[in-house]
Amino acid sequence: MSTPHPAADPAAGAAVKAADRAHVFHSWSAQGLIDPLAVAGAEGSWFWDYDGNRYLDFSSQLVNTNIGHQHPKVVAAIQEQAARLCTIAPGFAVDVRSEAARLIAERTPGDLDKIFFTNGGAEAVENAVRMARLHTGRPKVLSAYRSYHGATAAAINLTGDPRRWPSDTASAGVVHFWAPFLYRSPFHSDGEQQECERALQHLEDTIAFEGPATIAAIVLETVPGTAGIMVPPPGYLPGVREICDRHGIVFVLDEVMAGFGRTGRWFAADHFGVVPDLLTFAKGVNSGYVPLGGVAISAEIAATFDERPYPGGLTYSGHPLACASAVATINTMAEEGIVENAARLGERVLGPGLRELAGRHPSVGEVRGLGAFWALELVRDRATREPLVPYAAAGEAMTAFTAACKQNGLWPFVNMNRTHVVPPCTITEEEAKEGLAALDQALTVADGFTA
Questions:
Q1: Are strands 278-281 and 293-297 parallel, antiparallel or unpaired?
Q2: Of 6, 272, 303, 413, which is least surrounded by CB within 10 A?
């Protein structure tokens, strides 16, 4: 797929920016302090502005354009579906909705064969929690610190990062615990095995003190995304599965960000040989071309609602345009080996390339990831592991690093003291190496802030 060289049109860009600033209210932002880039177009691994600047998208926007920008097969599927049937209520049986559900169920682990469609990831988490509570008749839900599950009511309370704080009611029945993260271990572990064992014991203790019979579900990101791409140690997720089975707790895996090829497998759960009771998805299911998410449901939980109505639904559940884009995305990913490409990139280019950068840049404390899903932990001091900026704070160091990336034509995904390397799963080796070269230059700026 060739990427066109954009023609500059600054006047058009200024008009787009003016209209945005006059009328658009942006998420997660102080409205008077932002200066959003006016985007003129995108294709493949790139997007560009009206001044003629191209950016290699090392963010996949919000880690969702797994199939890249403007994939022609997906665009064509949306156009064809729009000409045939734009919308229909979720209570009808529709070919494209059924096919999307079949293709998803075919790839989910175990017996997760029923699909409840939502408009995105947060709504998927909301409904998974509702299903778990109704299935068990229990009120509490456990989730991890260093996590993100969405910005709606239950999902934001489940979230374990600072975005929860302004909206945390402390009355949502959520209890947080520490998941394993050896680099910043709360358990003072000396290796992955010990971190796994201590994290599982901590979870056992939390359940014991909260009361097992009060807990409906444990919700975990299979590989936490925005919170830092901390790949769980071997044995941890199977250990959580065993704890859930022993106490009759529903095990929910949040694969909104990690699913559909991002880690080099269809679902990240496949790396760990674990099958949850409920699995949430969104983002990569159709690369965000049309909003879509959902919950994949086990046979046991689905049976709860065979004779009992499920008290939930959305006007746009399984929207035909969204489902058409999902069908085209999944089929294209299979036909073009895109999941395999992500795995190959992680093994051959991104993993080795990032570790090589870490060896030369004192600002890089740790490299971690899988497939097309990586994070660099940026630090002031490797010995003390002091973050380049404090937890939950911005700072000059990360601002300067981010600016350097963009000046080099690289659009990064930055959160706190980390930069995540999360390009489209379709990115070529040549493009990935081009991105690593730009990242190399930007890390030199970060090095200037080390102790």
A1: antiparallel
A2: 303
What is the DSSP code (8-state) at residue 55? Answer: E
Q: Tokens 């707790």 sit at which residue?
A: 249
In the chain, % helix, strand, coil (3-state, to 5) comes to 45, 15, 40
Nearest CA among 298, 295, 315 for reference residue 123: 295
CA 373 to chain centre: 9
pLDDT tens, residue by residue, 189-229:
999 999 999 999 999 999 999 999 999 999 999 999 999 99
* Contact criterion met (CB below 8 Å) for 136 and 147: no
Q: What is the DSSP string of 111-124?
A: T--EEEEESSHHHH
Please give the share of the chain, as a percent, with pLDDT higher than 90.
Answer: 97
Phi, psi torsion values for 5, nearest 5 degrees: -80, 120
Helix (H, G, I), strand (E, B) or coil at 246: helix
Is the Cβ–Cβ distance between 422 and 439 less than 8 Å? no
- pTM of the full structure: 0.96
What pLDDT does residue 170 have? 85
Average pLDDT, the chain: 97
**Look-up: residue for tokens 């990032």?**
354
Rounded to whole angstroms, how far apart are CA atoms 58 and 420?
Answer: 8
CA–CA gap between residue 177 and residue 289 (Å, rounded): 35
Phi/psi at 40 (5° precision): -95, -30
User: Are 322 and 97 within 8 A, CB to CB?
Assistant: no
Side-chain half-sphere CA neighbours of 50 within 13 A = 13
Task: For 379-441, give the DSSP string.
Answer: EEETTTTEESS-TT---HHHHHHHHHHHHTTEE-EEETTEEEE---TT--HHHHHHHHHHHHH
Burial of 392 (0-12, 13-18, 19+ CB in 10 A): exposed
CA distances from 65 to 212, 281, 293 (A): 39, 14, 14
One DSSP character per residue, 410-422 reads: EE-EEETTEEEE-
